[in-house]
Amino acid sequence: MIDRGLGELATTMGIKLVSLSAEHAEATMPVAGNTQPFGVVHGGAYVVLAESLGSMAANVWAGADQVAVGIEVNASHSKSARKGTVTAVATAIHLGRTLTTHEIAISDEAGNRLSTVRITNFIRPR
């Protein structure tokens, strides 16, 4: 695991960064502690995982003199997880001068797709 600051919320949720580049990034999150009253992962938890990962990848692209800030997030939840760990994989769709877009696929330990999230980040001077 890579030890990089993902922020207090991501730390509280147990999100761990596995790999990070502008083009491809991966992180994990435990189901335990991130569920809604019915015992499945809360949809908002998937979005926090995805937005954290997509923003980190966008900031790698932005470089040291700029910062990437999220301006749009879209999520479609297709399945639920009740136990174990979920994995998010961010893939760059567009890496431009002022905008980046990443698709984040979140899956369970069996490889079932649980959620698909797209995030667009705006790159601006630091």
What distinguishing features does this structure have?
6-stranded antiparallel sheet; 6 strands
Summary, kept brief:
This protein is 20% helix and 45% strand. The protein has 126 residues and is of the alpha+beta class. The chain has one domain (8-125): Roll (Thiol Ester Dehydrase, Chain A).
Explain what this protein looks like in three dimensions.
Helix content is 20%, strand content 45%. With 126 residues, it is an alpha+beta fold. It has one domain: Thiol Ester Dehydrase, Chain A (Roll). Strand 5 and strand 6 (113-125) form a beta hairpin. The longest helix is centred in the middle third of the chain and has 20 residues, at 43-62. The two termini are 27 Å apart. The model has no long low-confidence stretch (mean pLDDT 95).
Please render the helix and strand layout as text:
Elements: H1 8-12, E1 16-20, E2 24-30, H2 43-62, E3 66-77, E4 85-95, E5 99-107, E6 113-125
Antiparallel strand pairs: 1-2, 2-4, 3-6, 4-5, 5-6
